[in-house]
Automatic annotation (TrEMBL):
Name this polypeptide is given: 2-oxoglutarate-dependent ethylene/succinate-forming enzyme
GO MF, one example: 2-oxoglutarate oxygenase/decarboxylase (ethylene-forming) activity
Highest taxon above the source species: Bacteria
Species per Swiss-Prot/TrEMBL record: Pseudomonas frederiksbergensis
Annotated GO biological process: ethylene biosynthetic process
């Protein structure tokens, strides 16, 4: 693999090679380790997600965003203490500035946890999704896609463990039977005259693994080194995968969570993308995994951002991100919440 500073496009990995010959399997694991270590982003082919299912998900996302505003706002995130639902463009905040995209967020369909005065605030994150009444086919389709993506992503995470010379099930206990799955449908409108070009501001993802399904409109950019960005151009039946901050934290910075952003599409066009985020159980605590000595020598330590510290406690870390990104929901449902500094990593 070329030196990361020399690349002009993301590396491509074929997940189906895990089922190939021993040499193909080992080659995939080596490439996976290098891509995640040196770049933090890669294209994934051979993922096993049916292309018809991917097309249906994209088609239903377009149908959702084409609904009248009144039907979308009826399932607005402002109604949900679980941070599920619709947001108009410029509702979500990244680095203090509004993101020019409308979006629909959902997670695992689970019952609300019983609460008392001693319950941690992050337990409020678990609960049901909101679904538009006039698009009834959206719920079963997205929940089917969520299950398919979870199966595939957990398989990839086991490959990560093996690539790091850990037991293949090293990460399994962080997920149990309740991984923190998160889907985000996103529509980026074209740039307005003289306005912001921030489709979504520069950031790192906070979980373990992120997967992005793109339409044909470019816009996603990855910061390979400080100030140098490359385009992650769309490819058919291909997912863009990136490392989240908790996986960087778990490997003491050996794996790389990379800054990325989306530039708004040109005037008169739009961009559609669908993200799947795999996170650990909300009650999990992320340990520091014992990497082999040869890999430890290359571990840089997790990047430190004093304005956005990382917590090893998954629930607190996830809640922190939600509160920062959605201050309106935070004010309505979490005015009493205070993130304890003692939990910072």
């Amino acid at each position: 693999m070329p030196h990361p500073l020399d690349i002009t496009t993301l590396p491509t990995l074929d997940l189906s090679l895990l089922d190939g010959t021993p040499a193909q399997r080992q080659g995939f694991l080596d490439d996976l380790r290098h891509a995640a270590r040196d770049v933090g982003f890669f294209y994934l082919t051979g993922h096993g997600i049916d292309s018809d299912l991917l097309s249906q998900v994209q088609d239903h996302a377009r149908q959702f965003f084409a609904l009248p505003d009144s039907e979308k706002t009826a399932v607005g995130m402002i109604n949900s203490p679980h941070f599920r639902g619709y947001n108009r463009a410029a509702s979500e905040i990244t680095r203090g500035k509004p993101d020019l995209r409308e979006q629909f967020d959902l997670g695992a369909e689970r019952d609300v946890l019983p609460q008392d005065e001693n319950s941690p605030f992050w337990e409020r994150l678990q609960g049901p999704n909101q679904w538009p009444a006039t698009l009834p086919s959206l719920k079963p389709l997205l929940l089917d896609w969520q299950q398919a993506m979870t199966r595939m992503s957990l398989r990839l995470l086991q490959a990560f463990a093996q690539a790091l010379a850990l037991p293949h099930d090293a990460f399994d206990r962080l997920y149990g039977d309740k991984p923190n799955e998160h889907i985000k449908l996103m529509r980026y409108p074209g740039q307005g005259p003289g306005g912001s070009h921030q489709g979504v501001g520069a950031h790192k993802d906070s979980g373990f693994l992120s997967f992005l399904l793109q339409d044909q409109q470019a816009g996603l950019q990855v910061e390979i080194e400080e100030g140098r960005w490359i385009d992650a151009l769309p490819r058919d039946n291909t997912l863009v995968v990136n490392i989240g901050e908790l996986l960087e934290l778990a490997t003491n910075g050996y794996l790389r969570a990379t800054v990325h952003r989306v530039v708004s599409p040109p005037k008169g066009s739009e961009r559609l993308s669908i993200a799947f985020f795999l996170g650990a159980q909300l009650d999990a605590v992320v340990p520091l995994y014992p990497l082999p000595t040869a890999l430890l020598r290359e571990a840089r330590g997790p990047a430190s951002d004093p304005d956005n510290p990382l917590f090893r406690d998954v629930g607190w870390n996830y809640l922190k991100g939600r509160l920062r990104s959605h201050p309106d929901v935070a004010q309505r449902f979490y005015a009493d919440a205070l993130i304890p500094k003692a939990l910072s990593a």
